[in-house]
Amino acid sequence: MCAAGSITAVQAQDTIPDAARIQGIVNYLASDKLKGRGTAEKGGQTASRYVAKRFKKLGLRPVNGGSFFQDFTFDRKAHKNIPSRNVIGYLDNGAARTIIIGAHYDHLGTAALFDGKYPVGEIHNGADDNASGVAGLLELARHYVKNRGKEPFNFLFIAFGGEELGLQGSKYYTAHPLMPLDKMHFMLNMDMIGRYNPERGIGIGGYGSAEEWPAVFKEVQQPGIKFFTDAAGKGASDHHNFYVNGVPVMFFHTGGHDDYHKPTDDAPKLQAKAEAEILQLEIQLINRAMAYPVLHYVGEKS
Fold first, then answer.
1. CB-CB neighbours of 199 under 10 Å
2. How far are the Cα atoms of 171, 178, 221, 268 from residue 245, in angstroms, in the given order?
3. Band of residue 159 on the pLDDT scale cut at 50, 70, 90
4. For residues 62 and 227, what is the distance between their CA atoms, to the nearest angstrom?
C-alpha cells in the first residue's frame, strides 16, 4: 500500500485528490474478480457498471436519454459486431461551453480478441493501463462536483470502452456526440498515470493543439512532480479522435514500463501518492484554461 494509507477517514473525505481512495479504486478495477476488464467480457461490463454507479453517487447527470451508457458495436479483423459502451456523466454548471475529461476503462481481459498477440486465458489486470486513469477521472469528477455552480464551464466525464481495440469508444463518441463538439472547450485524457518515474517525469501531449496552451502552462509547478510537454495532438489514445475532430487536447501519461500489456500490471505497483499529485497538476491546468472563454484550436501543420 502507499504511504497515504495512514490518512484518516475524515482526512480522506476532505482531501481531493486522495491517494488512499485512488488506490482503492485501482485495487477493485484491477482485481482478478474483473478479469482484466476485457471488451465483450463480463469483467468489462462489470467495470462499466461500477463507473456508472460512481458517477451517480457523485451527483453527475446522465445525458443519453436518462442512461449513463452509450452502447455501440464495432468490427475488428475477423471479429464482427463486438459490443462495448462508453460511460458518460455530466456536470451542468449552466455554462455555454463544456470541458471533457476522459479515460478508458477497458483493458486486455483474457486476451481472447487479440489474435494470439497476448497470452490467451491469462488475466491482464491493467492497474496502470488504465485503472489508474479511471481513478483519476473519478477524483476529478469529485473535485468539480464539490465546486458545482462555481465554474464557468460544464464538465462531461467519459470512461471510454474499446480503447485497446483501436480507440473504439472515442471514435464512436466523436461520430455520435451527445453535445456539439464545437462547444467543447478542450478534452483532457488520462491513460497510464499510475507509474510515475521521477527521472522521466510525466509527459503531457497536445501542447500544440491550442494557441493558448503555452500561456496556460507558463510557470505552472506542482511539488513532487516534474513534467514535459509534447506538441502532438494525435496519438495512441482517446484524445486522438477529439483532436482530429477539431477539439484542443491535453494527454497525461507517465510512460511505458516492463509490465505494459502483461499480466503483471497489478495494483500493488501503483504509485498512488504521485498520481494524486499529478491530479493536482491537472487541476491547476484545468483551472488556468478556464480563464479563457474560448481556446483556439491549432491543427497539424502541413
1. 5
2. 10, 14, 30, 37
3. very high
4. 34
288-292 long-range contacts, CB within 8 A, separation 24+: 288/216, 288/217, 288/220, 289/99, 289/185, 289/186, 289/212, 289/216, 290/99, 290/151, 290/152, 290/153, 290/185, 292/212, 292/216
- CATH number for 3-289 (one of 3.40.1350.10, 3.40.630.10, 3.90.226.10, 2.60.40.350): it is 3.40.630.10
The whole model's pTM is what? 0.95
Q: Which amino acid is at 227?
A: F
Cβ pair 145, 60 in contact under 8 A: yes
What is the per-residue pLDDT across 202-254, written as a single tens digit (0 to 9) for each?
999 999 999 999 999 999 999 999 999 999 999 999 999 999 999 999 999 99
**One-letter amino acid for residue 33 of the chain:** K
Q: Which residue has the cell 527521472?
A: 199
- Helices and strands (H and E) in the chain: how many: 8, 8
